[in-house]
Amino acid sequence: MFETLSDRLAGVFTGLRGKGRLSPADIDATAREIRIALLEADVALPVVRQFIAAIKERASGEELSQALNPAQQVIKIVNEELIAILGGETRRLEFAKTPPTVIMLAGLQGAGKTTLAGKLARWLKGQGHTPLLVAADLQRPNAVTQLQVVGEQAGVTVFAPDPGNTSGVEISGPGGDPVAVSRNGVAEAKAKLHDVVIVDTAGRLGVDADMMQQAASIRDAVDPDEILFVVDAMIGQDAVTTAEAFRDGVGFTGVVLTKLDGDARGGAALSVRQVTGAPIMFASTGEKLSDFDTFHPDRMAARILGMGDMLTLIEQAEQVFEQQEAEEMAAKLAGDDFTLDDFLQQMQMLKRMGPIGGLLGMLPGAGQMKEALANVDDRDVDRTAAIIQSMTPEERANPKIINASRRQRIARGSGMTVSQVNGLVERFFEARKMMSSMAGQFGM
Ligand code: GDP
C-alpha cells in the first residue's frame, strides 16, 4: 500500500537535492507537490489542507535544525506531521478493571469484522488472555459458521446462538436476536471466567438506519469497554463518510484498518483518525489470522516515506553532529574532495553515534555498503587513526599520491603492516565512491 504516495513524496525530496537552503518559493512549490501527492492517494481534503498548512509553517519557521540539509528538513517535518495525523502515540487496548473486558466490533459488511474477531482473539490469546468470541452477526448468511471456523483456527471458544449446534447446519439468519446473544455471551464469559469478550456484530453493505439501531442496542446491552470500528482501507474516500456515520450512530473508541495489504493509495488510513478523532488501534494486512498487528503511527509514517530507518539516522545525526561539522561534512560528501582526514573525522563521528554496525543497518539499501564495511569496529577506528596520523598532510589531502614506498614508510611509522595500510587506502577510495553516491541519493 501507499506506493503511489511513497513514490510521489520520494520525488518531492529528490527535487530538493543539492539546495543550500529553502527559499519561500521552494517551500511553496514543495507544499504544492506534497498536496497533489496526498490528494492522489485519496486523503480527505480537510486533512490535506491542515497537513499542508503545518508543513508550510514549519518549513519557513525558526525551528529548522542546522544539522540537516533542506531535503532532510522536509523529510523530518513531513514525517512528524504524518505521525501526528495518524494519531501520534500508539493507542493500546484498555482492559476493564473487573473482567471481562468487552470489545464490540462494528462496521460495514465485508469490512473484515469476522476475520478480525479471529485475529484479535488469536492475538489476545498469545498474550495470555482467555478471550470468548460472541457471534452476534445474525444478518449475513454464514457469519456464525465463519466465526466458528476462525475461532477454531485461533483456538478460542465461540459463543453462538445455539452453542450446542456443532453440526455445521445453518444456524444464522435474520430470525435470531443479536442483542440477546450478545448479552448472553457476556454472561457466559463471566460464568466461564473468560477475561475478554469480543462481540462480532452485523454490518450491511451500506450505512443503514436499522443496522445502526441494532448496533446501538447491542452497545447498550453489553456496555463495551472498547468499540472498534472496522473499516476496509480499500474503499477510499468512502471510509471517511462511513466512519462519520458510525461515529454518530454508535460511537467508537478505536479504529481498525483492514486490507492494508491491498491498497496502493490508502488515503483512508491517513484521514480516518483526523476526521473522527478516534485512534487507529490495529491494522490488518491479509486474510490469514496472523496478518494483524497493533498500529504504530510512527512505523506507518516511516513506511509511507519509504525511508527504512533513515529517519532514525536523521534523528541521531541531529543529536550528535555539531552544526559546523555536519555542514562541512555534507558539503564534502557530495564532492571528490573528501580526504583521509575527513574519513577519519567521519569514522570518529560515527563512533560517537553508536556501534558502527548498527548504524549501517539503518541506512536503506545499505546492503553492499554494510558488506564493504562489515569489519569496521571501534578498534578499527583506532587503527585507522594511527595509520592516517602517520601520513603527511599532503598525503591525507591527496591520497592518490600514496605509492608503494610511502606505504612502507606509513606502515613503519604507525606500527602496522603494509597490507593494513593498503587495506585502509583501498577502503577509503571505496567509501568515497559510496559516500558520493549516497550523497546523491539523499540530496546531501
Ligand atoms: P465482515 O463481513 O465484516 O465480517 O467481513 P469478513 O471478515 O467476512 O471479511 C470479508 C472478506 O475480506 C473475506 O474474504 C476476508 O478473507 C477478507 N479480508 C478480511 N481482512 C482482510 C485483510 O486484511 N486483507 C485481505 N486481503 N483480505 C481480508
UniProtKB/TrEMBL annotation:
Enzyme's top EC category: hydrolase
Query: Per the UniProt entry, what are the Gene Ontology biological process annotations, in alphabetical order?
Result: SRP-dependent cotranslational protein targeting to membrane
Q: What is this protein called?
A: Signal recognition particle protein
Assembly and binders: Part of the signal recognition particle protein translocation system, which is composed of SRP and FtsY.
Q: Where is the signal peptide?
A: none
Q: Which transformation does this protein catalyse, written as a reaction?
A: GTP + H2O = GDP + phosphate + H(+)
* EC code: 3.6.5.4
Q: Where in the cell is it found?
A: Cytoplasm
Domain of life, per lineage: Bacteria
List residues of the SRP54-type proteins GTP-binding domain. 279-292
Question: Into which family does the record put it?
Answer: Belongs to the GTP-binding SRP family. SRP54 subfamily.
Principal subcellular localisation of the protein? cytoplasm
